[in-house]
Automatic annotation (TrEMBL):
<dbReference type="GO" id="GO:0006355">
    <property type="term" value="P:regulation of DNA-templated transcription"/>
</dbReference>
<dbReference type="InterPro" id="IPR036388">
    <property type="entry name" value="WH-like_DNA-bd_sf"/>
</dbReference>
<feature type="domain" description="OmpR/PhoB-type">
    <location>
        <begin position="140"/>
        <end position="239"/>
    </location>
</feature>
<dbReference type="InterPro" id="IPR001867">
    <property type="entry name" value="OmpR/PhoB-type_DNA-bd"/>
</dbReference>
<dbReference type="GO" id="GO:0000156">
    <property type="term" value="F:phosphorelay response regulator activity"/>
</dbReference>
<dbReference type="GO" id="GO:0000976">
    <property type="term" value="F:transcription cis-regulatory region binding"/>
</dbReference>
<keyword id="KW-0597">Phosphoprotein</keyword>
<dbReference type="Pfam" id="PF00072">
    <property type="entry name" value="Response_reg"/>
</dbReference>
<dbReference type="GO" id="GO:0032993">
    <property type="term" value="C:protein-DNA complex"/>
</dbReference>
<keyword id="KW-0805">Transcription regulation</keyword>
<dbReference type="Pfam" id="PF00486">
    <property type="entry name" value="Trans_reg_C"/>
</dbReference>
<dbReference type="InterPro" id="IPR001789">
    <property type="entry name" value="Sig_transdc_resp-reg_receiver"/>
</dbReference>
<dbReference type="InterPro" id="IPR039420">
    <property type="entry name" value="WalR-like"/>
</dbReference>
<keyword id="KW-0804">Transcription</keyword>
<dbReference type="InterPro" id="IPR016032">
    <property type="entry name" value="Sig_transdc_resp-reg_C-effctor"/>
</dbReference>
<keyword id="KW-0238">DNA-binding</keyword>
<protein>
    <recommendedName>
        <fullName>Phosphate regulon transcriptional regulatory protein PhoB</fullName>
    </recommendedName>
</protein>
Length: 245
């Protein structure tokens, strides 16, 4: 039997926090709660959880700063950001600092639970995949596409021999492309394959991550040569054959 997943909810609005805690517990999760970022950091440090649900605006330490702090420490725990702001800038900021996903208030509880389930499933799949790769004969395999090198087990990416830092989602998205060079994916297909869910209105999350990949991979992100746009269809990795070193 799989252990019960532990979720920490950090939200300063009592009514929203209570609603989240009630429904997450009803869904079978073990849930702890707090109203501020500093307390959330202390709780998660003392007893690490499987998923963090963070409000963007909290007293003491807001969701963005908490996310940034955890990622700087190498903490890869999935983070779902909640925000009352609907501007693209706020969404991009959350993702740039390492959040795995976000929901804009007001949101449906069904959608929240779907996102939580998808993030936890991704984390479990990643652990299983890493364990399988580490024990296989191909554990030392490196995927090579031109000047791009990817070491799946170490989750290491090099561009022209220089290591580049990638968040968990960025790496998974890059691997999806690298394993299928030349294959064109729509944003909806990528959302389903990499994020683990499909929902209208959130495909721009994919666009943001594509832009982040290009910023780290391309010599000129405005004239990409690795992750290409196929007008009217989606995106693909260039058809330079991926070799195994």
């Amino acid at each position: 039997m799989n252990p019960v997943k532990r979720i920490l909810v950090a939200e300063d609005q009592t009514d929203i926090r209570d609603l989240l805690v009630l429904n997450l517990r009803a869904a079978g999760y073990e849930v702890s709660e707090t109203r501020d970022g500093l307390s959330a950091l202390a709780q998660h440090t003392e007893t690490p959880c499987d998923l963090l649900v963070l409000d963007l605006m909290m007293p003491g330490l807001d969701g963005l700063e908490l996310c940034k702090t955890l990622r700087a420490k190498g903490d890869t725990t999935p983070i779902l950001m909640l925000t009352a702001k609907a501007t693209e800038l706020d969404r991009v900021l959350g993702l740039e600092l390492g959040a795995d996903d976000y929901l804009t208030k007001p949101f449906s509880l069904a959608e929240l639970l779907a996102r939580v389930k998808a993030l936890l499933r991704r984390a479990d799949q990643l652990r299983v995949a890493l364990a399988a790769q580490a024990s296989s004969n191909d554990a030392s395999t490196t995927l090579v596409n031109g000047e791009l090198e990817i070491q799946p087990v170490k989750r290491l990416v090099k561009v022209q021999g220089e290591p580049q830092d990638f968040t968990a989602l960025e790496f998974d998205l890059l691997m999806h492309f690298a394993q299928h060079p030349g294959h064109v994916y729509s944003r909806a297909q990528l959302l389903s394959a990499v994020w683990g869910y499909s929902h209208d209105g959130y495909e721009h999350t994919v666009t943001t991550h594509i832009n982040r990949l290009r910023a780290k991979l391309e010599t000129d992100p405005l004239k990409p040569e690795i992750i290409l746009t196929v007008r009217g269809a989606g995106y693909k990795m260039r058809e330079c054959p991926v070799t195994k070193a």
